[in-house]
Amino acid sequence: MRKTMFIVGIIGICFFLSQSTSGYDEERATANLANDFAECSAYYILAAEALRRNAKENLVQTALDASDRAYLYAIKFSSTKVAAARVRAAFDKQRREMDRDFSNFPILTVKYGEMCSNALESPDRRLEYWLKKRD
Q: How many structural domains comprise the chain?
């Protein structure tokens, strides 16, 4: 009996360790990736407005194009309905993060700028990030 309990305990510990060292499953990683792209779509919408307010009209369309690309990826990795809801939620969250004041837009750039640029440049690397992510 003691030997059986010991073996069961060892198997349980091995199972726990194997679960804690692996990354997110594909479904969770894909959902997180879709959410990243929704956040990026919202970020680039706000970036376009920040550029417009700073008389950088020549860059506004670039930001809007990035927003569109991010939104299409968000749809690709979820659905139109889910992506739209996520973008709206991210937009509202980001506006709160900058206290609805575009002079605080750099707060968003620090938080989202590099991640969004990298995600749009290489979506497969961003997915790999989530597949390897551990809590």
A: 1
